[in-house]
Design a protein that fits this description.
Blueprint (H helix, E strand, L loop, with lengths): L7 H20 L5 E5 L2 E6 L3 E4 L6 E2 L4 E7 L9 E8 L5 E9 L9 E7 L5 E9 L2 E11 L1
Parallel strand pairs: 4-10
Antiparallel strand pairs: 1-2, 2-3, 3-5, 5-8, 6-7, 6-9, 9-10
């Protein structure tokens, strides 16, 4: 590592600040809220959107799973398409987890739903960005086990 034009103290301060910023960003990645709608347990944002998952259940890396995505409100309509991009917290690489799932009508108290399959490539914390017809709808944070 070569430092030009910095004293030792300045480089320590900049390094500490950078480490602090990285740790602060990592701490922002907290698992999203669990909630229920009629007979379903979901994770996400209550009364906006989420997918079927229980607090007691676990998501596992490399294991395909079936998940029902549910949404509330007028921003999502029957015939729209749901896509989900997942970003792993530590490697910051984006993966396409769901491609153009067809949004269907009401289900279990939600205004719309989309049945899907998802597989997480690796364990760790994930940010799931949900897109409706190519527009970001919201994000859900989940923990994936080995």
């Amino acid at each position: 590592m070569v430092l030009l034009g910095c004293s030792h103290k300045e480089s320590q301060d900049n390094g500490s600040r950078h480490v602090g910023e990285v740790l602060a960003k990592e701490n922002e990645w907290k698992e999203s809220e669990y909630f229920t709608s009629e007979n379903l347990s979901l994770i996400g944002e209550p009364q906006l959107f989420g997918f079927t998952h229980t607090k007691e259940g676990k998501l596992f890396a490399s294991k395909p799973g079936k998940y029902g995505w549910h949404s509330w409100g007028e921003n999502v309509k029957i015939g729209d398409f749901l896509s989900v991009m997942g970003t792993h917290q530590l490697i910051h690489k984006e993966f396409e987890l769901i491609t153009d799932a067809n949004v269907l009508g009401p289900n279990s108290g939600a205004d719309n739903h989309a049945p899907t399959n998802m597989t997480f490539p690796t364990s760790g914390m994930w940010k799931l960005d949900a897109y409706i017809d190519g527009k970001l709808f919201g994000s859900i944070y989940v923990k994936v086990e080995n």
